[in-house]
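Moderator note: this is an archived Q&A kept for reference. The question asked for a predicted structure of one protein chain; the sequence and the answer are reproduced below.
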Amino acid sequence: MEMMIDFPGGARVDAHFGPFTVKTDQPPAATAPTPFATFLASIGTCAGIYVLGFCQQRGLPTEGIRIIQRMHTDPFSGMVGKIELEIQTPPTFPERYLPALVKSAELCAVKKHFERPPQFDIYTQVVEPAAA
Protein backbone atom coordinates (compact mmCIF):
# COMPACT_ATOMS: atom_id res chain seq x y z
CA MET A 1 0.00 0.00 0.00
CA GLU A 2 1.24 3.47 -0.81
CA MET A 3 -0.01 6.81 0.50
CA MET A 4 0.85 10.24 -0.84
CA ILE A 5 1.13 12.95 1.82
CA ASP A 6 0.85 16.58 0.74
CA PHE A 7 0.64 20.05 2.25
CA PRO A 8 -2.49 21.89 1.04
CA GLY A 9 -1.80 25.08 3.01
CA GLY A 10 -1.53 26.47 6.50
CA ALA A 11 -0.81 23.72 9.01
CA ARG A 12 -2.81 21.16 7.03
CA VAL A 13 -1.28 17.84 6.01
CA ASP A 14 -3.36 15.34 4.02
CA ALA A 15 -2.88 11.65 3.22
CA HIS A 16 -4.19 10.30 -0.09
CA PHE A 17 -4.60 6.60 -0.84
CA GLY A 18 -6.91 4.88 -3.27
CA PRO A 19 -10.05 7.02 -3.58
CA PHE A 20 -9.66 8.45 -0.06
CA THR A 21 -8.18 11.56 1.54
CA VAL A 22 -7.55 11.83 5.27
CA LYS A 23 -7.29 15.50 6.21
CA THR A 24 -5.39 16.68 9.27
CA ASP A 25 -4.65 20.10 10.72
CA GLN A 26 -3.08 21.71 13.76
CA PRO A 27 -4.48 24.24 16.25
CA PRO A 28 -5.23 27.06 16.68
CA ALA A 29 -7.21 27.26 13.40
CA ALA A 30 -7.70 23.51 12.95
CA THR A 31 -10.29 22.50 10.35
CA ALA A 32 -9.61 18.77 10.83
CA PRO A 33 -8.27 16.52 13.57
CA THR A 34 -4.55 16.48 14.30
CA PRO A 35 -2.55 13.56 12.87
CA PHE A 36 -2.15 12.16 16.39
CA ALA A 37 -5.90 12.34 17.08
CA THR A 38 -6.53 10.55 13.79
CA PHE A 39 -4.00 7.89 14.80
CA LEU A 40 -5.69 7.42 18.19
CA ALA A 41 -9.12 7.25 16.54
CA SER A 42 -7.85 4.41 14.34
CA ILE A 43 -7.47 2.25 17.46
CA GLY A 44 -11.09 2.51 18.59
CA THR A 45 -12.55 2.38 15.09
CA CYS A 46 -10.46 -0.70 14.27
CA ALA A 47 -11.69 -2.45 17.41
CA GLY A 48 -15.19 -1.32 16.43
CA ILE A 49 -14.91 -3.02 13.04
CA TYR A 50 -14.20 -6.32 14.79
CA VAL A 51 -17.03 -5.87 17.30
CA LEU A 52 -19.40 -4.96 14.46
CA GLY A 53 -18.33 -8.00 12.45
CA PHE A 54 -18.79 -10.29 15.45
CA CYS A 55 -22.34 -9.04 15.97
CA GLN A 56 -23.24 -9.14 12.28
CA GLN A 57 -22.00 -12.71 11.89
CA ARG A 58 -24.29 -13.82 14.71
CA GLY A 59 -27.27 -11.66 13.84
CA LEU A 60 -26.87 -9.68 17.07
CA PRO A 61 -28.21 -6.11 17.12
CA THR A 62 -25.59 -3.37 17.32
CA GLU A 63 -28.00 -0.63 18.34
CA GLY A 64 -26.86 0.81 21.67
CA ILE A 65 -23.36 -0.67 21.46
CA ARG A 66 -20.50 1.80 21.59
CA ILE A 67 -16.84 1.84 22.49
CA ILE A 68 -15.43 4.47 24.84
CA GLN A 69 -11.70 4.92 24.36
CA ARG A 70 -9.64 6.50 27.10
CA MET A 71 -6.00 7.47 26.83
CA HIS A 72 -3.88 7.73 29.96
CA THR A 73 -0.74 9.83 29.63
CA ASP A 74 2.48 8.88 31.36
CA PRO A 75 3.31 11.96 33.48
CA PHE A 76 7.06 11.44 33.06
CA SER A 77 7.24 10.99 29.28
CA GLY A 78 4.10 12.93 28.29
CA MET A 79 3.25 10.03 25.97
CA VAL A 80 0.20 7.81 26.02
CA GLY A 81 1.06 5.04 28.45
CA LYS A 82 -2.23 3.16 28.53
CA ILE A 83 -5.31 2.91 26.34
CA GLU A 84 -8.64 1.58 27.62
CA LEU A 85 -11.43 0.41 25.35
CA GLU A 86 -14.72 0.05 27.21
CA ILE A 87 -17.33 -1.75 25.11
CA GLN A 88 -20.71 -0.55 26.33
CA THR A 89 -23.76 -2.67 25.54
CA PRO A 90 -27.45 -2.19 26.26
CA PRO A 91 -29.01 -4.33 29.03
CA THR A 92 -30.74 -6.44 26.36
CA PHE A 93 -27.45 -7.62 24.83
CA PRO A 94 -26.91 -11.34 25.57
CA GLU A 95 -24.52 -11.58 28.53
CA ARG A 96 -22.95 -14.80 27.23
CA TYR A 97 -21.41 -12.84 24.31
CA LEU A 98 -19.69 -10.16 26.42
CA PRO A 99 -16.33 -12.01 26.74
CA ALA A 100 -16.40 -12.71 23.00
CA LEU A 101 -16.89 -9.00 22.27
CA VAL A 102 -13.65 -8.31 24.15
CA LYS A 103 -11.84 -11.08 22.25
CA SER A 104 -13.08 -9.72 18.93
CA ALA A 105 -11.88 -6.18 19.77
CA GLU A 106 -8.47 -7.61 20.71
CA LEU A 107 -8.08 -8.84 17.10
CA CYS A 108 -7.74 -5.22 15.92
CA ALA A 109 -4.88 -4.89 13.42
CA VAL A 110 -3.91 -1.45 14.77
CA LYS A 111 -3.50 -2.89 18.27
CA LYS A 112 -1.47 -5.78 16.89
CA HIS A 113 0.89 -3.30 15.20
CA PHE A 114 1.43 -1.63 18.57
CA GLU A 115 2.42 -4.97 20.00
CA ARG A 116 4.85 -5.65 17.13
CA PRO A 117 5.72 -2.23 15.69
CA PRO A 118 7.07 -1.95 12.15
CA GLN A 119 10.55 -0.78 11.34
CA PHE A 120 10.76 2.79 10.00
CA ASP A 121 12.99 3.79 7.08
CA ILE A 122 12.83 7.56 6.49
CA TYR A 123 14.84 9.16 3.67
CA THR A 124 14.74 11.90 1.01
CA GLN A 125 14.45 11.65 -2.76
CA VAL A 126 14.87 14.56 -5.17
CA VAL A 127 12.17 14.40 -7.86
CA GLU A 128 12.07 16.57 -10.97
CA PRO A 129 8.75 18.39 -11.52
CA ALA A 130 6.49 16.79 -14.12
CA ALA A 131 6.51 18.49 -17.53
CA ALA A 132 3.32 20.41 -18.28
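Archived answer notes: Strands lie at 4-9, 12-17, 20-24, 66-73, 80-88.
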